[in-house]
Structure formats: structure tokens, C-alpha cells
Amino acid sequence: MTTITLITGGSRGLGRNAATHIARRGGDVVITYRSRKEEAETVVAEIEAMGRKAAALRLDVADSSSFSGFAETLASTLQSVFGRDRFDNLVNNAGHGDGGLITQTTEDQFDSLVNTHLKGVFFLTAALAPLMADGGRIVNVSTGLTRMTLPGFAAYAAVKGGVEVLTRYMAKEFGARGIAVNTVAPGAIETDFGGGAVRDDADFNRQIAQATALGRVGVPDDIGPMIASLVSKDNRWINAQRIEVSGGQGL
């Protein structure tokens, strides 16, 4: 049976890349977006052009009060678009970069990072677990900055560190249902994340490339296939792992 993968933040960047790579492997996809409806619809059209089914739903992962309503919308969409009452895989990808030095980071910035990257992942997964099929996969997206340190990213990295611990607990708790849970931790990637600094600042890009064993900065096509691989049935015995995909950055 064809799998259905839900990817939060799938209208752009790594989420979009993962969605298209999953579709190329024969999977169907539901993506969420917060404000980029037209971009999300473009992703759906791209996936449908591959002969796969897709849908785009609005979701603000920082607003946990909306998750029960989103679950109802998803259940309806699964029936109307896919003819199913369950989806198989969840990729907790949506997020944003914010903050600064510890002495400069505001409480609002910190709370926003927690609500989006940790609280959102925790409670969205809990809300959607009843709609997940046994034997599925959960992939939580973290960052290479939980291993490497770069001034200005303390709050972001600390919250992502929480996600990595949460991943192990999810693996333990969902293991009885045959659901494997892993973390993918990208290094620096050329996207619009964090204002597009890695992509658009030539000096910053060069510095990262020089600090990376493979001699370049990552691109979305370095990450999407990894996520697609983890939700594949072929990866049946990888569980509770943090998998860094950074090209050897900061060794």
C-alpha cells in the first residue's frame, strides 16, 4: 500500500524538498503551511504531476490550541483525498531561526522558539498519534548546532537539544506500535532559513564551506533524500537515533 507522509512546513526549504523526494519514491504527501498558501499549492501541483496524491493544510505549529481542530481537518482530508483513515509517517520539520547572543535574546524570542520547535512537536505528535498507522515513522528535524557551537544560536540549539531527547522518549513510547522515531540534524543549508544568511552571505557561506570536510555548504537536495529514506519501509531497524547530515561540518 502507498504510504502517506505528513510534513509540517512543507511549502518551502527542507520540507518542500523532502516532500518531492518522498513523492519520487512513490509516496503520497500532506504538507502544512502557515502563511505561504500559494507556494504550498505549487508543491501539491508538482507532486500531482508525478502521479502521486497530495494536499496542503494550514497549520501554525506554535499554536498548540489549534491541534485538535487540525487533527479533525486532517482526518477529513485523508478520507476525501486519499480514501484512507490513517496516515503513515510524520515529519516534524516546520520552524524558524531567531535569537542572538544569550545576553541579547528576549524572553519573547525564547518562548517563540520553544513553542514552535519543542512544545509544538510534543503536542502535535500527541494529537496526531491516533491517526497514525502502526508501523509508521516519525522524523524530527533538529540541527547540527546541538553538537557544534556558534555564538548567537544558544536558544535555538538548546530547544533543538530538547527535541533530540524527546525523540528517544517517543521511540520508547511508540515502539509497541512498531513506530520508529529518529532525528535528522542538518548542518548549514542554503535556504531562506534565518533570513537566508547561509545562502546569501558569500563570506559566511565560504567560512562554513572551509569548516566542512566535503568543502561546501549543504543544499536542500542533501537533506530531502535522507528524510525520504528514513520514512521508507527499507529502514526498518533504525530507531531512536540522531543522524547528522552536515557533510562533516565542524569536525
Question: How would you summarize this macromolecular structure in one to three sentences?
Answer:
The chain has helices spanning 13-24, 37-49, 67-82, 107-128, 154-174, 197-200, 202-210, 224-230; strands at 4-7, 28-33, 54-58, 87-92, 132-141, 180-186, 242-245.
Q: Could you characterize what this model shows?
A:
By secondary structure, the protein is an alpha/beta fold. It has a single domain, classed as Rossmann fold, CATH 3.40.50.720. The chain is 41% helix and 17% strand. The chain has helices at residues 13-24, 37-49, 67-82, 107-128, 154-174, 197-200, 202-210, 224-230, and strands at 4-7, 28-33, 54-58, 87-92, 132-141, 180-186, 242-245. Strands 3-2-1-4-5-6-7 form a seven-stranded parallel beta sheet, with helices on both faces. Helix 5 (154-174) links the parallel strand 5 and strand 6. Helix 4 packs parallel to helix 5.
